[in-house]
Specification:
Layout (H helix, E strand, L loop, with lengths): L1 E3 L10 H10 L4 E4 L8 H10 L1 E7 L5 H8 L4 H13 L3 E8 L7 H8 L5 E7 L10 H4 L3 H19 L4 E6 L23 E2 L8 E2 L5 E2 L16 E2 H7 L14
Helix pairs in contact: 1-2, 5-7
Amino acid sequence: MVLFSGGEPTVRKDIEDLMRLCKNAGLRSGLITNARMLAYKGLLEKLADAGLSYIHTSLHGSSAEIHNRITVADSFDDVVSALGNIKKLNMELHVNTVVNRQNMADLKRTADLLSSFAPLNHKLSLVEPSGFFEGNRDSLLERPSVLAGYAKETVSYGVGRHSAGGMTFGLEGFSLCHIRGFERYVDNLFTHGIEYMSEAYEGEFFPVDHGPRIYPEKCLGCALRESCPGVYKGFVETYGDEDIFPLDRSKRL
């Protein structure tokens, strides 16, 4: 499979041609997209005919108020319309919610809304403290352990309430010490089998990684160290190591 990401890949005038090239080469095509252009049914059907079979998009709240405030765009209605269109075409669908202070109490309601568009995977991702985040720390920042608590509650709730309808759940970006007991829900580039990526300005492919993450000294003796992706550097800069809870090797199950 070839995944087209961005920027926003659906604004490329040649995106259909690129997907058709992949199809002719025997490859599936996928999109990592904000989905707004997919609200136009005609475009989605053209891309499907060209080989599109996998979509990864985002919904950050159960209401326009929450989602639009986080995205700083009037995009909620477009995303919901796109999800309805995607459901009709039976594509592999993954919907990401970036967990932060603004939407942590709304996660279960977001899962309820998404259940209308199942089958799909609802991924709850820890907000990364970089980029847009830096100018909005007061509204987005919360301890990772607190955000993980809301995410785990939502997974338990969603599995119990919506799994029969074809919904699955995943967790991305959290240190393993914050999601003890939920390790089987880890969902990231690696679990999707994505091995290489290339930015538009790069002339070759590079192995994927976990992003700007580190292992503070407190992590070094943790029994989970070898399988843990580490901690986003920005959280360590904010909280030090006080929000890190290493597991003693002698207590590992």
